[in-house]
Amino acid sequence: MSLNMLKLCVGCDSVEDLEEWIAFRLDERRRAGEPVEQFHTTRMVPTRGAELTDGGSLYWVIKGNVQCRQRLLEIRPFTDAEGIGRCHLILDPTVVRTDWQPRRAFQGWRYLKLADAPVDLGQGNAALAEMPPKLRLELAELGLL
């Protein structure tokens, strides 16, 4: 059974910001001759890694709402230059927009069960995908989405 992960997307104001950042980082890696893959570095290594990489996704909380996800491909633990254990979450660079789901701020990451994950946009709410992000945010803040 798949399991998902939930994480705050610090520094991004929108899904578009996240997509631009991913494209920039992939281009940097391409120009540097490094493997062209997208990853996020985290301090704690998930103990349920096999479940996460068995079809799970990393759901991003942007401005207080889960707004999108990226499929988790691999988890690579490593030790950094200071001797601190960390891991790279290897992600599919394709960002999939989801229904918005309000979330309070938290530190680190959390597991997210399939039953609790928001559905992808286009699965019943195709019109929401066409709505400008600012309008969606205002409607979400009013509790109308």
Q: What order do the helices and strands come in, and which of them pair?
A:
Blueprint lengths: L3 E5 L6 H17 L6 E5 L6 H4 L4 E6 L2 E15 L5 E7 L4 E7 L6 E4 L13 H5 L2 H9 L4
Parallel strand pairs: 1-3
Antiparallel strand pairs: 1-7, 2-5, 3-4, 4-5, 4-6
Protein name: DUF1489 family protein
Pfam families: DUF1489
InterPro entries: UCP032025
Oligomer type: single chain
Total number of beta strands: 7
Please state roughly what percent of the residues sit in beta strands, choosing from under 5%, 5-15%, 15-25%, 25-35%, 35-45% or over 45%.
25-35%
List the total number of helices: 4
Q: What structural category do the secondary elements indicate? A: alpha+beta
CA-to-CA gap between the ends?
A: 29 Å
Gyration radius from CA atoms, angstroms: 16 Å
Largest sheet: 7 strands, mixed
- From the spread of the alpha carbons, the general shape counts as globular
Q: What is the percent of helical residues?
A: 10-25%
Low-confidence stretches: none
Can you write the helix and strand succession as a string? EHEHEEEEEHH
Would you tell me the overall average pLDDT? 89
Organism: Aminobacter anthyllidis
Protein name: DUF1489 family protein
Pfam family, one: DUF1489
InterPro entries: UCP032025 (IPR008320)
Model description:
The chain has 145 residues and is an alpha+beta fold. It contains 4 helices and 7 strands; from the N terminus they run E-H-E-H-E-E-E-E-E-H-H. Strands 1, 2, 3, 4, 5, 6 and 7 form a 7-stranded mixed beta sheet that branches. The protein is globular and about 45 Å long.
